[in-house]
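Final report, results section. Input specification for complex C-07:
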Amino acid sequence: MPLFNLPGVFLPHKKGTAKIAPVAIPTPQSVLIPLSMHIGAPATPVVKTGDLVTVGQVIAEAGGFVSAKIHSSVSGKVKNTDTTILSNGRKVSAILIESDGLDTLCETLAPREVNNLEELVQAVKDSGIVGLGGAGFPTAVKLNVKSVEDIVINGAECEPYITSDTRTMIDRGDDIRYGIEILNKCLKPQRIIFGIEKNKPECIENITNLTSDIENVSVAPLKAMYPQGGEKVLVYHTTGKTIMEGKLPIDAGVIVINCTTLAEIASFIRTGMPLVKKCITIDGGAVAEPKNVIAPIGTRITDLIAFAGGTKSAPKKVILGGPMMGWSVESMEMPVMKNTNAVLFFNEQEATVPEPTACIKCGNCVNACPFGLDPKAFVQALRAGDDEALVKLKANICMECGCCSFACPAKRQLVHTNKIAKAKVMKILKERQEAKK
Amino acid sequence: MNNLLTVSPSPHIRSPRTTSSIMATVLLALFPAALLSVVLFGFKAFLILLVSNLACGLLEYGWCRLTKIKNTVPDLSCFVTGTLLALTLPANFGEWKNLWTIVVGAFIAIIIVKEFFGGIGYNFANPAITARIAMLVCFPDLMTATVHTNLTNPELASGATPLGDIAAGKAELLPDWVQMFFGNHAGAIGEVSAFALLVGGIILIASKVITWHIPVSFIATVGLFTLMTGTYPEYQIIAGGLMIGAFFMATDYVTSPDTALGKVVFGIGCGLITALIRVYGGYPEGVSFAILLMNILNPYIIKLTRKKAFGGIKI
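Structure output:
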């Protein structure tokens, strides 16, 4: 355990949906499944227009080493494989499937026998599972390591509103327990640490009871602080290890797995059902009945909100993900993806973007940054065109968590300028590395 | 009906704190000292506060109109400057014939120190401090006059401020410590009561507008230095502008460091310079000069005390 915690911000939790068990939504008439729901290369479609597909059938294969398979979430007919949608600023192709309403299961789905790492990695590859905490890193790539000291299971769920991981920890104890056993069998870590924020006592109790007889598993109750679930923050607070700049957790001997990701892995091994459905929190001031729903991947936002009793007032901003790191979409026709854990519908008041005023150098951004960066200095360096200063200020370390913008009394869009600064530094560092070779 | 969705960069929620709410909290924290100044020095103190705030507000508004920029008066920072400037003046500025000098001070603070350098967030030094020093140069007689409170018994009072008594080696003339702590002694209208300023300082720290680092390191350094030199530390820390300087002026965001370490370095620097001037110097202006000097050093302190990035590799 580290001597001092990293800084962060304290947010209103707004986790009103935590107590409500998720409900499955009826199969929508059609689903739109993007080919890029993960970090890395987009998947390559293996179905064509007019093909008949079933639930769990592979519709796109991994498009590279860092990529993931995609499965159909409904049974029905492929309408086309090249609908273009705008996904977080990038154009992405998507497969449109019209449901026949029968939800026929794919015949080849069967439980897996997993006894070693090779079988685990293959199973996770076949399941199409990506990091479900939000980042969407292909899990099979993450697990394919020679050795690991610590596995940290992320149950922090530090973003406001979202309770889908909370529900996993309450409702899917069997899957989590089985997943931990599989990890112990295949990866043989020294420790497995389950990090959960203290604002979820029910989850802490449930997981503690569930794992009390497994020797190397411990539950770490963490301060309810944002961004407690950020990978580097969580690893530091649970193991005391620092993940260095430009490195992955495995370089410090650590693997971080989100708790829902773990439950999905276990569920795939036990049933053979790949990742085609997702528990999603629907909340925000414009929602009539905030709740958790289980929706097929590719369900459009319009279908989701209709199931949640519609809207109280016209939504003025719709966010995929949490309010701190989620992205606001420009259309309600956008589908939910593998790594979508919440859809928030903000009313007019919540959607109003405050007018930025002059920086008063209060230092709130500096003191809110978990990594000790100086976002206001990035702005000065960007204005001065001083790229070298940006390199020295370590803009590349920024994880875009949003603490600086949240804390800023002048309401400046600091994360936005951080991203610009970060991209510049990344480019410079890459060029320097290539020049060295 | 307008169905378009708002698209904006994350995060989508913001802290309720704004620039104007911070300034409003500072004004609230200055209220006890301002109120007490009117109690102790009467209508003159009220006039000083009124003229200073009016002048600062109007000058800032006029500047915004003249340069066609957005009116920044609603952020309330000009009234923080106005109130601070007023509180550091002796009551004789409140005489009718002297009121115009306050406008000169306000002009130096708002126009020269603040707006010429780019307005709020860009001033190189604390506007109120710099204006006060300029006024000391322009109106030395007014500025160094010893004005007793209305409650002081004229027969018992010495002819100088407590710091003046210490400097002149007439410690036997020092007023009663408790009387002095609550503000019944000669001095600037808002600086006399360490008690009222301490209440304000606690408001600022409790509401997280400032942290303890600068005021505590500033005051502790002055206390320690004067203790070691045997120059009445118990009077030094409650006399002159130390309390208002440590809690309200040295903590000005723009001109002070933003990390805990930087703040402590800044506070110790302010304290040392203040104590050196008070103990060995000939000027009755320890706190103002100390803060102004440290303001100028601030960019270097920021650079030298920057936090190490988490997991950052040395380059």
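The longest strand of chain A covers residues 76-87. Residues 364-436 of chain A form one domain. This concludes the modelling results for the funded period.
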